[in-house]
């Protein structure tokens, strides 16, 4: 099954296998939290911007009765993601396209999706320590800025469709402004904290296309209890058993 010495076989929280590469960015807790954040109450058409190896897309399929179209710029990762789709027998529900988020208007007509999700690079190209080699585009905005992801989401979403993403707290004001610029109204916000008494290290945001103003700030998602064990809220995000909707 492995086609390179740089590949390894891991597992998603529900036990599904996923192939990853040691020289590329591998999925983290943020992917699990992002997949657990959207609220879907019917069969939905979902787009993921920047799929990587496909963790979020696969987990969304495990949680919801949805079909997912993933866009991935790196042809190597797009091919690996497609293999992960086949490995989990999801070819009838997940389609991976090797495409640039910045060219979304060339790849898709507008308004075809109920939900768009994204775990975009966290830092601008000139901020922070630049990761080396193939890891760099996943961590820094070298191949598209967060604004490009937001524009792509606005293009792809139906009226009242939802956009969900995860990002660093320091970028929240910027993202709120850009979402509103593209008529994506921020509606749900949740900060992620390592401990109850520590500052947030990430946030999850849901914006709805064409919605009225009104932001619901959820209780923070705390990762660890004082003794270092995982909180029940964090464990609930990893518990996917029996969670597929109708």
Question: What descriptive keywords fit this protein?
Answer:
alpha/beta, two-stranded antiparallel ribbon, 8 helices, 246 residues, nine-stranded mixed β-sheet
In short:
The chain has 246 residues and is an alpha/beta fold. 27% of the residues lie in helices and 27% in strands. It has helices spanning 29-36, 55-63, 75-87, 104-107, 136-139, 146-156, 172-181, 232-238, and strands at 7-11, 17-21, 44-49, 66-72, 94-98, 113-118, 157-167, 184-193, 202-209, 216-217, 221-222.
Polypeptide structure, described:
- By secondary structure, the chain is an alpha/beta fold.
- The protein has helices spanning about 30-35, 55-65, 75-85, 105, 135-140, 145-155, 170-180, 230-240; strands at about 5-10, 15-20, 45-50, 65-70, 95-100, 115-120, 155-165, 185-195, 200-210, 215, 220.
- The strands form 2 sheets. Strands 3, 4, 5, 6, 7, 8, 9, 10 and 11 form a 9-stranded mixed β-sheet that branches. The chain has a two-stranded antiparallel ribbon with strand order 1-2.
- Strand 8 and strand 9 (about 200-210) form a beta hairpin.
- Helix 1 packs parallel to helix 2 (about 55-65).
- The radius of gyration is 17 Å and the shape is globular.
- Mean pLDDT is about 90; it is low at about 135-145.
């Amino acid at each position: 099954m492995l086609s390179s010495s740089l590949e390894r076989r891991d597992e998603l929280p529900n036990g599904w296998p996923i192939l990853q590469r040691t020289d590329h960015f591998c999925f983290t807790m943020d992917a699990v939290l992002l997949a657990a954040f959207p609220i879907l109450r019917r069969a939905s058409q979902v787009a993921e911007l920047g799929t990587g190896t496909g963790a979020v897309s696969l987990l969304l399929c495990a949680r919801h009765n949805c079909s997912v179209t993933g866009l991935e710029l790196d042809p190597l990762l797009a091919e690996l993601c497609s293999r992960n789709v086949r490995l989990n027998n999801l070819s009838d529900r997940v389609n991976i396209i090797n495409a640039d988020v910045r060219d979304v208007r060339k790849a898709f007509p507008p308004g075809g999706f109920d939900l768009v999700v994204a775990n975009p690079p966290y830092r601008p190209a000139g901020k922070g320590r630049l990761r080396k080699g193939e890891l760099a585009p996943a961590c820094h905005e070298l191949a598209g800025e967060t604004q490009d992801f937001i524009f792509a989401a606005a293009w792809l979403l139906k009226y009242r469709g939802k956009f969900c993403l995860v990002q660093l707290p320091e970028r929240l004001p910027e993202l709120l402004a850009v979402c509103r610029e593209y008529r994506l109204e921020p509606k749900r916000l949740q900060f992620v904290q390592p401990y109850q008494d520590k500052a947030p290290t990430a946030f999850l945001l849901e914006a709805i296309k064409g919605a009225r103003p009104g932001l619901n700030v959820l209780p923070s998602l705390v990762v660890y209890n004082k003794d270092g064990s995982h909180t029940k809220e964090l464990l609930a995000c990893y518990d996917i058993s029996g969670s597929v909707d109708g």
